[in-house]
């Protein structure tokens, strides 16, 4: 959205607003409001992270009954605890923006989000087959969250949202590293 505003401003400046003499080229600075609080990027990232985390929580809840790997079960419980706390924080940040608490991603399947079909398949597996599928789902989730968190840090404006994104990026990388030692 900001780039569209800048592009329109630049076109108007270059066109000279209808004058016959060329208009001087002037640097256009970002609006001050972007520095003051949340922008659409912050809201979108927050909403998407809530959706990603909630869908993964449903998969993580299956681990105690389905896994054959005690270390993976412990890891899944740890990730679930952190995701639950993260969802609480994400909702607080979303509420602070004034954005509605509805989930615009309901019913959407996006990269890094375990699909309802895969969740059903996962629920039907146990032992090593469950462990492999859960680990694959976690890897995709961690990688996507890490990438999205990096994007939020470079494109977002709200310092609180960007701080959480930095934490998510670091945590998801640590989770990827730890997962690779549990399930190759």
From TrEMBL:
Domain DUF305: 42-182
InterPro entries found in the cross-reference section: DUF305_CopM-like (IPR005183), Ferritin-like (IPR012347)
One Pfam family recorded for the sequence: DUF305
Signal peptide from the UniProt entry: 1-23
Protein's name in the database: DUF305 domain-containing protein
Keywords: Signal
Source organism: Catellatospora methionotrophica
